[in-house]
Each structure stands twice: as C-alpha cells, then as structure tokens.
Amino acid sequence: MLVKRAKAALNIETPTPSARPVTLSFEYAPSLESADIVKLKPRYGLYIDGKMVEPSSGRYFPTVNPATEAVLTEIAEATEKDVDRAVQAARKAYEKVWSKLSGRERGRYLFRIARIIQERAREFAVLETLDNGKPIRESRDIDIPLVAAHFFYHAGWADKLQDAFPGREISSLGVVGQVIPWNFPLLMAAWKIAPALACGNTVVLKPAETTPLTALLLTEVFEEAGLPPGVVNIVTGAGATGAALVSHPDVDKVAFTGSTEVGKEILEATAKTNKKLTLELGGKSAHIVFEDAALDQAVEGVVNGIYFNQGHVCCAGSRLLLEESIAETFIEKLKKRIDKIRVGNPLDKNTDIGAINSKREFEKIQRLVALGKEEGGEFYEPAGTVLPAKGYFHKPCFFANVSSSFTLSRIEIFGPVLTISTFRTPQEAIMKANDTSYGLAAGIWSEKGSKIQKVASALKAGVIWANTYNKFDPSAPFGGYFESGFGREGGRHGLLPYLEEK
Amino acid sequence: MASHHLKVPKTIKLFIGGEFPRTESGRSFPVVRHGTDAHFAHLCRASRKDFRNAVAAAKAALASWERRTAYNRAQILYRMAEMCEGKRDEFAEVLCYTQGLSNDAAQKAVDAAIDAFVYYAGYADKYQQVIGNLNPVSGPHLCFTAAEPVGVVAALFDENSTLDEITAGLSAIICSGNTVVALLPGVTGTLLAPLAEVFATSDLPKGVVNLLTGDVSELAPQFGSHMEVQAVSVQTKNEALLAELKIAGAENLKRVAPPMQTNLGLNNILQFVEYKTVWHPVGY
Amino acid sequence: MRSITVRGPEGRLLPILVPPVDEVGAQERADFFTKRSIKKESKLQALYLAIRMCDLTTLEGADTPGKVLQLCAKAKSPVPPGLFAAFAEKKKLEPIPSVAAVCVYPSMVKVAADVLRGTGIHIASVATAFPSGQAPLSTKLDDTRFAVEQGADEIDMVINRGAFLSGRYQEVFDEIRAVKEACGPAHLKVILETGELGSLDKIRLAAEIAMEAGADFIKTSTGKIQPAATLPVTLVMLQSIADFYRRTGKKIGMKPAGGIRTAKQAIQYLCMVNETLGPEWLTPDLFRFGASALLNDLLKQIFKEATGRYYYEKAFSLD
C-alpha cells in the first residue's frame, strides 16, 4: 500500500541523470578581490623624520601596475641631499630617543606595529598585488601574514638580547641603511626593519623603484603605532638613491637584498669603511628528487619551488635534478600539473601566477627562454594557457635535458623557468647541485631520512629544504653561501648583524 | 534629581575548563576591605573534588595546547596583555580594596602584570632557540636536543602573591605548552574574577588555565599527591611546605619548583620543560 | 618504492607498486583547494553537478520501507517539480536534477528498486557485512548476491581491515575479487574505511589493492567511523587513480563519503578532482558523494545564487 502510494507520488516527470551532459568543463569564473580598499594618493613624498616631505629635486617617477601597464601613482626621487637628510634624522632619533629606550619599550612599539599590520592586512595585500603583480592569494596568505609575524617575533627579542647571547656584552650599531628588492616588497621591508629596531638601531630604508607603495603605506602604521619620528625613514628612488644611501659616511651598517651584481658593487663601495654589511643576493638553487621520494608531493614541491611568486624568488628551486629511474614519470606528472596552473589577473583569487613585475624583467625572461631554445633544451609550456592581452604575463615553463654547461643552468633567470637534468647516484646529485657559483638554497626529496641528512650535509647552501620548499619563518635564519651573499636574516642568528660586541 | 544606583557586585566563582562554576562543596569564606571589617566578597573554598575536576580539565586541554605552534601561543599570550589592559581599572579597584594599595601603586601593579604577559608572549617562540641545540656527537649521526612541556602543572600561590607574580608565574608555565591548575589562596582569590575573564577572552583554549580559591593547607596535599600532575610551582616562601610537596610528589617523581627569583626570566620557563634528544643516522 | 606481490587470476604473480606519500605535503596540497573561490555561473554549474553526484544514503538500524520510500522520493525530485517550475522559469534556472543513486542496506533494496525502476537513478547497496566487514567470506558473498538479486546495480563493499592491518593482503585482494565476481553486472565500490588505516601510506596501499582486484570505484568510508572523508585522504586516492589510469588506461571512480555536509565542501572536492584527474572525471559515472545532509545545502545554495537571499532549513523537505 505504502509502495503504491509512493509510486504515485513519484510519477511526476523529472529529468533523469542521463538526460544531462555527461561531463562539465569546469572553468572557474573570475573571482576578483576588490581594489576599493586601497586609497592611492596622486603622488608620494619621502618619509623623513616622521613626515612626508617633497624631494629636493622636485622630481617624481611613475609606478606601474604590471598586470595592466597602467600608472598607479607618482613616487618621489630622492637625491643625495635627501638621503643625507634621512640619515641625519635617523642619527638624531638614535641618539636622542631610540638608543635610550629599554628593550621592553622598543618591543612594545614593534608589537603594536605587528598588530596594526594584522588589522590592515587586506589593504596591504591588495596594494602589494597592484604594485608588484603577485597573485592576491599569495600576498594575502603568505606575504602579509609573514610581515606581521616578523614584527611580532622580533618584538619579543628586544628585551631578551642578553639571553640570546649570554655572557657577551652587546649593543646596537647606530644608523642602518637598507636597500630592498621588488619581489617581496613589504616582506623584505619587514625582514630588514624589524631586527634592526629590535636591536636598538634606527633605519633609512630604500624600497625598489618599481614597488615602493607598501613600504610607504607602512609609514601610516608607524604613525598609528606612535613610533618616534626619525626611527624609520623611507627614501624612494632608483639605483642612484641606493648608492647614495650605502655610501653615506654616517651609516654604520648596510643591509642589502638584491642582485649579486649590485651586491658586489656595494661591497666595493663600502670596502674602505668600517660599515658592517649583510648581503642577501641571487641564487640558482638545486632541487634534487630521488626515486624513493613521495612523487606526487615532490611535484607540488617543485612547482612551488619555481613557480611561486612568478619565479621571482632568490631561493627559487630553478635547477631540477631528477634521478634517472623516475625522470620520465616525473616529467609526465609535472607537465600535467603545470597545465593546471592558472596565469592571469593577480587580483583574481584563483590566479596561481600573476604578472612579471616590470617590462625590463619580462623582456629579460623572454630573452633567456629564447636562448635556452637555441642551446637545445627540450622546451615545454602548457599549450592551453591563454595569457591576458595587456600586462606582463609569462607562462610557467621548463627545459628538460639540460646540461650543466648551458647558460640557463648557470645564470639566475628570476622567472617561471625551470631547467631539468638527471643524475644516477647521490654523489652525482651532490656534485651537480654544488656546481654553481651561488649557494643560497637547495631542496631534497626522499622518504629516507638518513639519505636526506647525508645529502643536506654535503650541499653548500644556506638553506636546505627536505620534502618541502620555499618555507619561510621569522624564527628560521635565511641567507646564502658564496656569491649568494653573507649574513643571516631571521632567528637568533639574524640578530647578530644588527649588534656589536663590546 | 540625583539617581541612586545600587551597585551590582560581581560574584567570584572558580574557573575550571573555561567555565565559572561554584565550588561543588558549597563552602565559602568572606573577604573584607583592607584594614576594615567591611564585607568585600565571599570566595569559594575549593574542595579536593574541585581540584580533581580542574586537573581533568587541564589534562584534556594539554594535547591541543602543546600542539599549537609556538607563534600561536605567543599571539594568545599577547592577547592576554591586551585584555588585561582593558580591565586595568577593575584590577586596580580590587587591589585597592583588598590589599590597601594606593591607586598609583595599583596601576603600577597592573603595568607589571601586563609586562609579564608580553614578556612571555615574546618567549613562547624563542626559548627553544636559546636552550635547544645540535649536539656534535662523534659518528655519523645528527643529534639534537629540544625542550618540550612537562604536562599538567599545579601552581600554588601565596596569600601575599602580587598580581604580577601571578601573571608571570602562569604565563611562564603555559608559554611552553603546559596546562595549569592554580590556587589563589586567601585574599588573592579576589583577583580570580578579572584574571579568569582575561583568560576566557584571549582565544586561550578552555582548560589551559584553571583557577581555584581556598586554603593552602587543605589543597596543598592534593597538589603533591595527584598522579596526573607532573610538576608543582610553589610560589610561597615556606620551606616546610616545599619539602612536604616534594615528599608527596615522590610517588610520580613530580618536579617541584621553588618560588621564582624574578618575575621575568628564562629560568621560570625552564622549570617546566623536559629535554628530548633525538638521534638520526646520516648516510645514503 | 614499496611493493607487495599478490597471486592474481590463474595463480599469476601480480606485483603492486605503492609509492610513498608525504603527509605534510599532501595536507598542504589539499588545503590549497579550500582557497579556490568558485563564484557565479561556475558555482551554479558545480552545485547542479554535485546534486547529480549524490549517493543519497540511509544506513540505520532503524531503517524501514517507509523511510526508504521517502528517501527515494527525495532522490528523484529533491524539490517538488510542480512547485519549482514557476520559480525556475522566473529565475532562468534549469530543473533540479535527480541524484545519482540511493544507497541502502540489502534488505531495503527491493523497496527502492520497485519505485526507482526506469528513473535512471542507481540503486546502491552496502554489502559484505557492512560496516565492520567481520563475517565469513561466504556470508559476504551471499550478502552481495542477495542485494544484486533484489535489484541493486551498485555494491558498496567494505574491505577486511583486520586482514589488511595484519598484513594479509592476499586475503583482502581475494575477497574483493570474489565480491566483484558475485556482483555480476553490478558496479563495485570498495570502501577502504580510511579512518581505521592509520596513515596515508596505508591508504595508498589499500587503494592500489582495491583497484588491482577489480574495483570500479574506491570509496573512503562507511560513515560509521571518524574521521570519514577528508580532503587529503581523497587527494591521495585520486592520485592513486591517476597513476592506475596512466598504467592501465582504466578509469576508476572515486567516492568520498561521510562528513561532507556543505556545498562549500562539495565544491572544494570538485576543484580537487578537476585539478588532479581532469574534467573527464567530473561525471556521476566517475565521481560520487556519499552523503545525506549535503543535498539540502546544495539546494539552499542554488536558491541563494538565484535570488541573492539566504535560505533556511524549512525551505526544503527533510527526508
């Protein structure tokens, strides 16, 4: 009876599953983060002694959104005179205020800064994406949270420096001149400013000329946190501004992150002084995958290693070394994986690779890819990926069957371009990995712990990631061997370059 | 027309597992305004069963709290400083009424209490870096030593413990991942209400901090004998009690820590950690 | 790479390769799919697809013909078509489709089969001493044959976890093969009960054994054990399916079951399938959700997309 009634009730025409299309082409509709949260001024001055001031030259230059090629706003060009003003302000703040505060009080300011950054996180993330071209997913989930974490971590050190170096009499240095790159604009500012202030120094910072906006927004945070004027000064400009800063006679310490080429120039420029120096420079990091690795996770690690942040990462795992026995399978998996990478509008929450930061970098990558093809590497890029018509976009790609003697194996491309070669034994993998003038980072993939330890101890690089890649934490020291620079940033070791022993 | 507001006084209860129960025993003791006979509040006289419930809550919270990242524990401790700042006047009022502090002295006491939260917030993700290390053993082994929390800690404060001693003592214990059951005896029990509200509103998981009021003489033997308690922090300068607790705790080799030398110091954390040494081969 | 060897048909030795899985990496990759932001027409499309992928399930000791019939009615028309038609026309919505299957105990198969014949909705039945799997093989095979005779065209079997965890892989393999044979024309879904296997490595091993033994689908959970389906577990199983397909050219289906209650979760799973196996797996023939509470949330979200208004529970029937 029940069945009969139910049958009657069901006797209404409805579409059956077979009447529908069999599969779905699952295109993700654009899901754009609103840029309204960012309020840009028509032009920005220099931040000196707690005030925004005009540059003495009266000159301004544009900063561009690399995803649209549209001008965002105008930035002041600091001259030698402006840099001098900034250094003087920093000196005055050091002597009159900052060096007189207790560690506890310095820490209190840094905690406040960390909290305000957390509160304004989305605004910073959107601005970073607009100015740099990196995907909003990365600026939102990686850059900005790490910025806050860096200030928070170093805030805690300010009153514990003596515990960090027991039995040693330590003190601050004075005025620190810092020059940072465009790939992680605000994160690099945090890596520089937070330890410097925690250790009791004052700062003059020069952001990269193509990405100064988040550092300039950070000045609002300093204001809100009540940071005394002159403790951090920000001068914008290109190479000449940076050169003026690092060679200023009243700067006690120089910290630079950027290209090896400029790093060498700075080393020469400061050679005849007593300035302390840390350099965090380029890399050509090897990523070794052994046959006993968890291959699916290794594929993810390799993708993250080279395509994260458009490949604009100094420690990018740009040289993939595959054990011969798994090379074919691995490359097949890698191809399938990069076919799924979404390149496009950086403000789209589903974008995996955004825009190359500038026309200059874009053209350099294109030039090197063309050279790689000439040299004879086996080139692959996803055929289905469609790039936006405007803006500097580059597909993720790789060259297989590359020799260590190819140009692409030796120079830093700083883009989403991977080279792949093979090896047969761990000894050969180590030899190939170390066959570079750089020594910033390396990756090892194996499920065998003792092998990881042995290979890690043989690799000449400042950071070794095992079964992971591109992990950053304020508590973990970062920096390179050889032509990747010297000095460490982060962790207990990262405090030393900002202190001197009496 | 002057309005006459009859004040609603706050009932001070216990703080166990994130909740505010009265003592199951139904007992209380009165506290008067400092230097007078005027009634201030009735505090719960916690029973042995309340203590056991608090230990159960602390044990239940341990697994999740010790697995939190150090950064997360640091953020939560800093949040306590923020919440404490927001309750500054309430703390000061209690200190003025019950301990006879001047308003200035009370405000300074709150400053120091906040400093303690901030100090240990800073240490949560650093004490490992100061005390852990790589051991250069002879042979093909990677060998390192890292600190880990001991587990459930019972903290015994003194009738004369100051607010900052209490916040420092508790922060030092929880910053490495321990959970705690604390007794605020006698008049210090009046601080339970604002303190518990700080812990309850700082994203601290329920049960990480549990607070009791009552008598030292009644509960101290329980602190020593409960087998789930791995360490006791004794913040009362009473040599006889310290010895008594060591003897009572011998059955499960309880760590018994004497009063802190200073409020802010690495050693206060290291009293409540274990060291784990890991050996790992290095070879193809 | 780990490998085990089992004796296959006609006594041939069959090596089964089991690549290692790194738990942290798998978790990270799985988390990535919670960051995908599926909006507008993509979302609507995904919601409709998810309905078509539902195995609407009731597996209670208290199941009765009445309960099963009500479930069948809901399976066929998740919303009353008569009431929906005018709304759909106004909002330019397609009709709400039927679900893929109903999933019931063997004793309830006939009830469901009688009312669902000709609707295109599959009748799935758990068999093999569900959920524990602790019964003699003969009982399990009888259970299976009975369900098929009663009209089930899909069988959801549980593996013998006792045998698996004590390393008797041959026994697990043989049992799956025997059940597959007993299924006849019915499709076989093999439940690994991942919540009892302890590690992703073991889940990968169980998935490989099931596929080699003839599973048409592999399925995470009975729904009776926690944790049930999770994103990392499903990811590892999808990767096993990808490798099996590369090796054999055979497409195996996937069914996460238990714990998927919201449309948001369902869409995360669909993104994961899309980016791990490709869109050719985005069909009810190769992907199913084992769920009951999910269906109403999918409906709620479809109505929300159409009207901009958040719907409450009362808007949809509770069967």
Question: Any descriptors?
Answer:
B: 284 residues, alpha/beta, Aldehyde Dehydrogenase, Chain A, domain 1, five-stranded parallel beta sheet, three-stranded antiparallel beta sheet, 10 strands, C: 319 residues, TIM Barrel, eight-stranded parallel beta sheet, 14% strand
Could you please describe the fold and organization of this structure?
Chain A is an alpha/beta fold and 502 residues long. Helix content of chain A is 39%, strand content 17%. Chain A folds into two domains: 43-281 and 483-501, Aldehyde Dehydrogenase, Chain A, domain 1 (3-Layer(aba) Sandwich), CATH 3.40.605.10; 286-474, Aldehyde Dehydrogenase, Chain A, domain 2 (3-Layer(aba) Sandwich), CATH 3.40.309.10. In chain B, helix 2 (70-86) packs antiparallel against helix 4 (103-124), helix 2 crosses helix 7 and helix 4 packs parallel to helix 6. The mean pLDDT of chain B is 96. Chain B has helices spanning 48-67, 70-86, 88-99, 103-124, 127-131, 163-174, 192-200, 216-225, 239-249, 266-270, and strands at 28-32, 39-44, 133-134, 141-149, 152-156, 179-185, 209-214, 231-234, 255-257, 273-281. In chain B, a hairpin with a 6-residue loop joins strand 3 (133-134) and strand 4 (141-149). Helices cover 43% and strands 20% of the residues of chain B. Chain C has one domain (38-315): Aldolase class I (TIM Barrel), CATH 3.20.20.70. Helices cover 46% and strands 14% of the residues of chain C. An eight-stranded parallel sheet of chain C has the order 9-8-7-6-5-4-3-10. In chain C, strands 1-2 form a two-stranded antiparallel ribbon. The radius of gyration of chain C is 19 Å and the shape is globular. The A-B interface holds A 104, 107-108, 111, 149, 152-153, 155-160, 163-164, 426, 449-451, 453-454, 457, 475, 491-492 and B 70-71, 74-75, 78, 115, 118-119, 121-126, 129-130, 140, 142, 266, 280-284.
